[in-house]
Write a structure and sequence with these properties.
Arc Repressor Mutant, subunit A, Tetracycline Repressor, domain 2, 10 helices
Length: 211
């Protein structure tokens, strides 16, 4: 039986292999196109076998979205474990800022991911499906704020409005920025606070209407 040190070494090696595959794949996707890049090409660039790539990532889109792994789980934790008295919009703001810290840790990799997704319709569709999952998480938190069932129209409407913040952050100034580059932290904070203030007011109005 392998000891803790051996297991730890093996896990670190697997993590490095996974990261290498993602980095070289995103670079190839950006340079040669998502559909124009094969698993064999990714394997050659990562110096692993095609079987290894497929073992880590059964589908090519899994490679693209590996950069975002854990995002939904962190959002769920932010909403479900928020302190007493904190509303969902405040929890969302904190989550978005913590995700920005993750992004800032490796801006080049995230920028490359953004370029690849924006250029490929199928990846944009996949991303939208992920966003709908985020919307359901928000609806659950907003339902608590509004004291209604998660499936209630008011909670769903508020969640849909909150999701528009993500589109706002992505689209604002998009044409003027280099491809893949996000707004500055200051720009994001300004947009985020404007949007969340608007949504928070709407949630309060919905709650008052239900009293």
């Amino acid at each position: 039986m392998l000891g803790p040190a051996a297991n730890s070494l093996r896990e670190r090696k697997k993590a490095r292999t996974r990261e290498t595959i993602v980095r070289v794949a995103l670079k190839l996707f950006a340079e040669n196109g998502y559909n124009g890049t094969t698993i064999a090409q990714i394997a050659e660039a990562a110096e692993v076998s095609p079987r290894t790539v497929s073992t880590y990532f059964p589908a090519k889109e899994d490679i693209v979205f590996d950069v975002s792994a854990g995002t939904k789980e962190r959002l769920v934790a932010s909403i479900e474990e928020r302190p007493a008295g904190q509303d969902t919009m405040s929890a969302l703001r904190e989550w978005l800022m913590s995700e920005r810290e993750v992004l800032d840790h490796d801006q080049e990799l995230h920028a490359c991911q953004r370029i690849v997704i924006d250029r490929e319709e199928s990846l944009l569709v996949h991303e939208q499906a992920m966003m709908r999952e985020f919307e359901q998480v928000l609806a659950g938190g907003l339902a608590v704020d509004l004291d209604v069932d998660p499936g209630d129209l008011k909670a769903r409407m508020a969640a849909a409005a909150a999701m528009a913040v993500f589109d706002l952050l992505h689209d604002e100034g998009h044409a003027e920025r280099p491809e893949g580059q996000l707004p500055t932290v200051e720009e994001q904070l300004g947009l985020l606070d404007q949007a969340l203030a608007f949504i928070t007011g709407g949630v309060a109005a919905l709650r008052d209407a239900g009293d």
